[in-house]
Amino acid sequence: MRSMRSAAAAAAAVGWPLPRPGCGNWACQHALSAVGARALALASAGCAAPSSGSSRPQRGSWDGADDEAARLADLRHPPLWFPLARSVRRRLVAHVGPTNSGKTHEALRALKAARSGIYCGPLRLLACEVAERLNREGVPCNLVTGQEVRTVPGARHTAATIEMADLETRYEAAVLDEIQMLGDATRGWSWTRALLGLPAKELHVCGDPAALPLLRALAADCGERLEEVAYQRLSPLTVQRHALRGLEDVAPGDCVVAFSRKALHRLRANIAATPWRGARSGGDGSGSGEPCGYSDPSSSGSECEEDDRGDWAAAGSGGGGVPRRRRRRDGGGTGLPRAVGLVYGALPPEARRAQAALFNAGNGGGGTGGSGSGRGAGGGGYEVLVASDAVGMGLNLHIRRVVFATLHKYDGQSRRPLLPGEVKQIAGRAGRYRSGHSEGYVACLSPEDVPLLQAAMAAPTPPLESASLLPTFEKIVEWHEARRSRSFADSLEALCDTAATSPPYALGDAQNMVRIARMLEPLPLSHEDLFTFALSPTDMTDPASVEALSTVASLYARDRRVTPACFAGRLPSEPPASEAQLRRAEEAYRVAELYCWLAGRFPGAFAERGAAQGLRDGVAALIDEGLRALGSAGAAGGGGGGGGGGGGDGDSSGGRDRSSRRGSGGERQPRAKARQRRPASEEEAASKAEEGGGAADSGAEARGESRARRRLFDLLDEDAWGAHPK
Question: How many other C-beta atoms lie within 10 A of the C-beta of residue 295?
Fold first, then answer.
């Protein structure tokens, strides 16, 4: 006890926070001893009292007038931020294994058996799925996400998105899903916060084995022991040795993966217009052995020649067109279009779920039905799915084979190869246990990608190095006041730049928060309100979302009351009939989602949450209806003009004849061209941004922020306020 008091005194001398001294809990005592021991070591080295010559293992300074600010920037002991969790003797269990290994299923069994508990996942889709499953199995369960709350009478269980984890309620059991997200620079801090702060007797974490070393370090930092349970994949996964020869080799049960919006829509149209080779050669794509994908129908299943596969060298970019030479050789085949589903992250969760259900309906029998019969949304489901990496989480899909259109993606800064962990996460969706497929397969469209795919699938996933961390609001405010800064955004950015962390923690990326705070600083908002707006799910690279946030924040600052009328006039009234209309409908959905999110944080000001949810759900229904119609139209119309060599995008102008505009001579022709030039350039800029054009991305981003800032100052102008709805 004497050594503990000495340790506490030494820790206090260097300004480190400690657990309450009267706590007799063994975890608190362990933390006190560990922190105190480090403090004693520093004190013995002459660091007990700050001086101009002392230094600390951090990026900030620790001398003179900055003494208080430096103390607040010390983020090296985050377990001590959560005294309630430290007061609980927690049992930590790590369920680790590849995709489709049953690890989450086992953790949910423990959650279901507990008298109270919480599930925390990365997506609203996952939280909804868990809530529905528990309620269906007789365990009342609430749903809590950033946009909505569903309360079930008598429920002592909750399924939530990770950011909504309640750290003030004691639980008998808790489950953290996709724990490898700890290392994500943008969202990882939410997993770190939940892992360190959930006051649960049993804390089950599920995810990739690459997270194990980091989990051990975090458990040790909390003074807790980690139990490890390893899982193996429940069904085999085979990497095919050759690339597909063309889109005619995309078989029922396949999921073709690309990473840009333009490529996804193009692939969907081209696959829908390209009859399946198996319907002509007798393959079914559903029997034993590998799916029909690289076998030559003229040679009874022998491997295709190298020069044939070389025709698809350019398909890895997501072009997705059928080579003309092969189309002429194969002829029209059955000539029947195929039904193709579409899933990507910008779609509303409801639409993604509906598309997944239609794909499963078309492949519930183990991927059969490969007659190329063109079953549509109303005729039994989709044969094939085209998707982004959004399929890697949150959707139960009956995929037999994952086909990568490319193994490169634009990550917001540059175009880069997929990491092994990313490849495995997506590829692992094939051959899901109890989906009707006894085995899963992975392939690619481009021959050049085959070695990359094989290497990624064979490579061990590098272990996570650190858990992402962000300072709490209280620390930011204290830091802001200690610096006597006029700008809250500057204080937030400076704290993130100078804060000290130590392994196994690292500061996350707060740039999106900083940019929101800087944009809204001219408004008369409290620090707490400004911080809340900065946490909103607003992508500052999306001009529509930026403008919506500036509008609602301005109305909130002016009236302290915001109604859905501020965005209702921009909502679509009909299903989108083109890709451009679909994009605008998705933007409208995100605006309604933003209102719902803010209604959960400012219930008095954003009081019409139910009305906003109704508008949001209406837009989601229109998007779902439009997706089904676009899929049918794409199949029936031969891909909307996008089937030629992968270069065509189809006509996104809602059926207008471009040739008639070009043929209109006289003096009006230049004006007609000028009218169409501007939307074309915007679409081109968006396409470049999605497919790796960083300059286009930053340009659109700057235009969006500039437009939002002008809108904000318009609303701040008292003379203009009367023109805007209250």
Answer: 22
Q: What is the mean pLDDT of the chain?
A: 76
Burial of 46 (0-12, 13-18, 19+ CB in 10 A): exposed
pLDDT at 381 over 60: yes
* Domain membership flag for residue 270: yes
Query: Domain residues for 258?
Result: 237-275+338-362+381-458
53-81 confidence digits (pLDDT tens):
333 333 443 343 467 778 888 999 999 99
Mean pLDDT, to the nearest integer, of 121-150? 96
CA dist 630 and 4 (Å) reads 69
Q: Which two tokens stand for residue 406?
A: 């490319």
Of residues 196, 26, 199, the one with CA closest to residue 116: 199
CATH number at residue 409: 3.40.50.300
Residue 36 within a domain:
no
- Considering the domain architecture, whether residues 454 and 475 belong to the same structural domain is answered as no
The answer to whether residues 381 and 258 touch, using CB atoms and an 8 Å cutoff, is no
372 HSE (CA, 13 A, CB side):
25
Whether 327 shows a pLDDT value over 70: the answer reads no
Total domains present in the chain: 3
* Residue 709 CA, distance from chain mean position: 27
Judge if 198 and 269 occupy the same domain: no
Paired with 160 in beta bridges are 120, 144
DSSP assignment of 349-385: HHHHHHHHHHHHHHHTTTS---S-----TTTT--SEE
Whether 474 and 560 map to the same domain: the answer is yes
Domain check: are 398 and 479 in the same one?
no
Do 426 and 508 share a domain, yes or no?
no
Separation between Cα atoms, residue 390 and residue 16, nearest integer Å = 42
Residue with more model confidence, 324 or 460: 460
HSE-CB at 300 with a 13 A cutoff on CA atoms is 0
